[in-house]
Specification:
By secondary structure, the protein is of the alpha+beta class. It is built from 7 helices and 11 strands. The strands form 4 sheets. Strands 2-3-4-11 form a 4-stranded antiparallel beta sheet. A 3-stranded antiparallel beta sheet has the order 8-9-10, covered by helices on one side. Strands 1-7 form a two-stranded parallel ribbon.
Length: 255
């Protein structure tokens, strides 16, 4: 596997590599798994469950994010669950190919999460703790869908405070399932075709890495999805339509 630290930014990164390695290793410390605590994030109010298979007993298959206006697949390791991969780990191109071919209950427009510059114009490759750069911890900007999910929606605590003080990460999965304690692939970085963005669901950091690395994939799509009515709901709808039709026929006959 290509090293996680195989960068292509030239001297500006290679000169800082020892410090970067130390920071990243600290960010990969084992998180404490917390019970899903609504007070840690906004997920109880900003995520809306979507029943894609029409069977409420199975729970929700997706969640609509009302802040980002996107829909997350509920299973954060669906490649394994669906039998498409044993490990669930892909290189960036493989991750993109898998997610673009994904079809879940007739919904086939899934994609990788998006990462855009935090400042709205250009990526900044300086490591920061306060979320003010595209590399580092505590990124709460909606420009990074994965980082916003980790830090805001789920309210997780990364390996560093905004002031740069190391701490034990605290992680919860909220309403999702099978979140992996690993980096997740995000979109391609516009500054270098050989690299792509990743966000750690272990230490909470966002970074830009070589595409040859192997990481999990979390499928997302733009906008909301149409909820499939449950079979019982279909029955009620058909009964209601039949009653309306019967009344209409009686009215037409003057009865």
């Amino acid at each position: 596997m290509t090293s996680l630290f195989s960068f292509s930014f030239g001297r500006r990164v290679s000169a800082r590599l020892p410090a970067v390695l130390a920071l990243m290793c600290a960010g990969m410390s084992s998180p404490l798994l917390a019970a899903s605590d609504p007070t840690m994030g906004t997920w109880t109010t900003t995520l809306q469950g979507r029943d894609l298979d029409g069977n409420a007993a199975n729970g929700f298959e997706a969640y609509y994010d009302t802040v980002l206006d996107i829909t997350w697949l509920a299973d954060a390791n669906a490649a394994v669950t669906l039998g498409d991969s044993v490990s669930g780990l892909f290189g960036w191109q493989g991750a993109r190919d898998w997610v673009e071919a994904l079809d879940v209950y007739g919904i086939d427009d899934w994609r990788l999460p998006t990462t855009r510059p935090v400042n709205g114009s250009s990526f900044v490759f300086t490591t920061r703790y306060d979320g003010g750069s595209d590399i580092g911890w505590n990124i709460t900007s909606t420009q990074s869908e994965l980082a916003h999910l980790y830090n805001v929606t789920l309210g997780n605590l990364g390996a560093y405070t905004a002031a740069g003080v190391a701490r034990a990460p605290v992680f919860q999965d909220g309403p999702f399932r099978n979140i992996q304690p690993n980096y997740y692939w995000s979109s391609e970085g516009v500054t270098d075709a050989s690299g792509a963005w990743v966000v750690s669901f272990q230490g909470g950091d966002q970074y830009f890495v070589a595409k040859g690395n192997a990481f999990p994939v979390w499928a997302v799509r733009d906008g909301d999805v149409t909820v499939v009515p449950e079979p019982a709901a279909w029955g009620l709808m058909l009964t209601g339509l039949a009653l309306v039709a019967a009344r209409a026929r009686r009215s037409a006959r003057g009865g």
